[in-house]
Amino acid sequence: MARLLLSGGHVVNSTGSRKADVLVADGSIVAVGDLASLSIVDAEVVDCAGKLLLPGGVDVHTHLDSPMMGTTTSDDFESGTKAAACGGTTTLVDFAMQTPGKSLVSSLAAHHAKATGKAVIDYSFHMCVTDLYDGATDEFAEVIQSGVSSFKIFMAYRGTLMLNDGDMFEVLRKSSALGGQVCVHAENGDVIDRLAADLVAAGKTGPSSHEIARPPSTEVEAVERAIRIARMADSPLYFVHLSTEGAVEAVAEARSKEWAIAGETCTHYLTLDRSLYDAPGFEPAKVVLTPPLRTVEHREALWRGLRAGTLGVVSSDHCPFCLEEKRRLGEKDFRDVPNGGPGVEHRMIVMYAEGVRKGRLTLEKFVDLTAAAPARQFGMAPRKGSIETGADGDIVVLDPDGTTVISAATQNQRMDYTPYEGWELPGSIDAVYSRGELVAKAGTYVGSQGRGQFLRRATA
Ligand code: URP
Ligand code: ZN
Ligand code: ZN
Ligand code: ZN
Q1: Atom of ligand 1 at shortest distance to CA of 288?
Q2: 416 falls in which pLDDT band (50, 70, 90)?
Q3: What pLDDT score was predicted for residue 100?
Q4: Residue 40 scores a pLDDT above 90
Q5: Atom 7 (ligand 1) nearest CA
Q6: Which of the listed CATH numbers 3.90.550.60, 3.20.20.140, 3.40.50.720, 3.10.310.10 matches domain 56-377?
Q7: Is the pLDDT score of 38 beyond 90?
Q8: What are the structural domain ranges in the chain?
């Protein structure tokens, strides 16, 4: 039996933290506590004195090997999951896009084929519904029974991804009747398309126009409308990538009424801001992602929303396109710049540094937002998201005295930039274990190939 003893570290769970030893056998945690007296034999012992032991990160919002806006995201399941592992994330839930003209079940099978044998950490999918063809909802039960217990819909990108309100209502009521969840991208796509057309007509075709075409109210209106439609459908709802103060207020009001509304925000909305759109030339394309980055006031409202529990999850929305690819497609018209940015590798250390070390979050809250809560929300607890007996041996060894310098030149993401270029952060991720196997050491992937397992997720 392969056994691993992580001794003397400071074990952090969302529920509390303490100095403890952790014993992992055959991929699972079998004991947590003061194990020195047990004289454990046959175990590889790793001295973790002075280190934090965190549950492996759970990132429930990534787009790997994913078709988007006429191209494909630059990380596939191999490069993307290796980058995730190096950054302390041991579980992903990726978006399986519906292929235009194809059924949900066959689109899901196609996404499985991209991940099988390539992913190096455990993963699951959300099923994106972009075309509610006749019979689409009849496939929901099969999708859910296969372990994909959540769907995603878009309120923006008319003509490619967007559902109308009636279709959204239908997805919500059919999914909730089966115990499934629906994740929604909330932006008023039609208003955005008008604003964007005006900007182009006025000759403002550069990437900084992306932000101007998507003002905060286009998110807030969509959030408020989606909450109302979810109520009509008697369905819970999960908002992905919220970016505005008004969205936080709308979610808080719904939650105060005990409506089943959950909200996520992303690393970049918490740590970057709209000033990056003022950069010269094509530079702003690096942060052409949706919704756009906002002002510092919105950013602070998001941190307050996390502390208040209004927003429960921090994901990366890792949707990487190289700058050269953004330029190739969108140099003449910002509407053609593929939307998205990288982040799966840096979510954990950026949140630790900007959240915990800047005094905005407790260690326990940091673990909750980046691992425990997303695992609970999407049916992966108690296997994922905690360091407890019975959980998978997914553990991050973080050195609080270390330093991390982020740079495109050294990152594992298959990208020619990172929005965190040159950031020097307190703390370093020394080692990452996935089901007891050492998979990353000091930012280098050292695990075996294709070892990731598909996680069948439970319904609510
Ligand atoms: O810019 C983003 N977020 N691209 C990915 C697609 C999405 O909306 O999540
Ligand atoms: Zn989205
Ligand atoms: Zn996304
Ligand atoms: Zn490239």
Answers
A1: 1
A2: very high
A3: 85
A4: no
A5: 290
A6: 3.20.20.140
A7: no
A8: 3-54+383-445, 56-377
Q: List, for residues 321-344, the tens digit of each pLDDT value.
A: 999 999 999 999 999 999 999 999
Ligand 4 center to 317 CA (angstroms): 19
CB 447 within 8 A of CB 434: yes
Look at 11-15, 42-46, 104-108, 172-176 and tell me which has the smallest mean pLDDT: 42-46
CB atoms within 5 A of ion ligand 4 belong to 322, 416
pLDDT tens track for 53-66: 999 999 999 999 99
Atom of ligand 1 nearest to the CA of 154: 8
Ligand 1 — pocket residues by CB below 6 A? 63, 185, 241, 289-290, 317, 319, 339-340
Taking the C-alpha atoms of residue 61 and residue 149, their distance in angstroms, rounded to an integer, is 14
- Is it the case that residue 29 has pLDDT exceeding 70? yes
Is there a shared CATH topology between the 3-54+383-445 domain and the 56-377 domain? no
Tell me which fold the domain 3-54+383-445 belongs to.
Urease, subunit C; domain 1 (2.30.40)
| Block residue for tokens 């039960």 | 141
Mutate to test the pocket of ligand 1, among 59, 63, 318, 329 (most ligand atoms within 8 A of CB): 63
Ligand 4 center from residue 341 Cα (angstroms): 13
